[in-house]
């Protein structure tokens, strides 16, 4: 194991192949751009170990930052939400004969909700030293880093569980492994 990156060597018909698997988000990369990915993951390891995040100019941010707040990461993102698209009823019926001509019927009906994760808004996500800001076409949301309970990275996005909210914030990003690492370091620095 190499910190955030697991390197797996496998054999293929064309010879040796190197596959990278991210510990945080389980994303998989092949050897096509292995040098580029190896450099990027080594850089993320250094950031994770040292706890020093890069700073970006806040002039690109359409929101005014608080005093002492620094911008660390900017990316295009889609805000996703789990929505109910329909219901499905399933059930069984059992009939018992009591005496001739009289029957007792028991029914067990359960209703399942069909849900689907859908894109609610498109915009940009900003990570500062104190909060995560999403600014989209339709809505804006702010997540304070102190309120984050859990952060789950996926192959193409991130789920952020926050205090006093039932559903997580779901963001679809281009580089979720980078965002997860930056948020973990920013939360640790608080």
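^ Assign residues to that structure.
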């Amino acid at each position: 194991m190499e910190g955030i990156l697991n390197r797996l060597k496998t054999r293929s018909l064309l010879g040796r192949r190197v596959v990278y698997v991210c510990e945080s988000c389980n994303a998989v990369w092949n050897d096509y751009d292995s040098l580029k990915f190896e450099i990027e993951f080594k850089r993320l390891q250094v950031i994770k170990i040292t706890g020093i995040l890069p700073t970006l100019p806040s002039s690109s941010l359409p929101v005014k930052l608080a005093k002492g707040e620094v911008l660390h990461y900017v990316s295009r993102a889609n805000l996703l939400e789990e929505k109910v698209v329909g219901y499905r009823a399933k059930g069984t019926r059992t009939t018992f004969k009591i005496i001739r001509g009289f029957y007792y019927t028991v029914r067990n009906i359960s209703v399942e909700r069909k849900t689907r994760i859908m894109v609610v808004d498109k915009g940009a996500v900003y990570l500062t030293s104190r909060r995560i800001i999403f600014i989209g076409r339709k809505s804006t949301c702010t997540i304070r880093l102190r309120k984050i309970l859990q952060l789950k990275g996926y192959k193409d996005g991130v789920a952020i569980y926050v205090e006093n909210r039932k559903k997580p914030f779901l963001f679809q990003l281009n580089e979720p492994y980078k965002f997860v690492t930056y948020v973990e370091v920013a939360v640790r620095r608080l």
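The helical segments are 34-50, 176-189.
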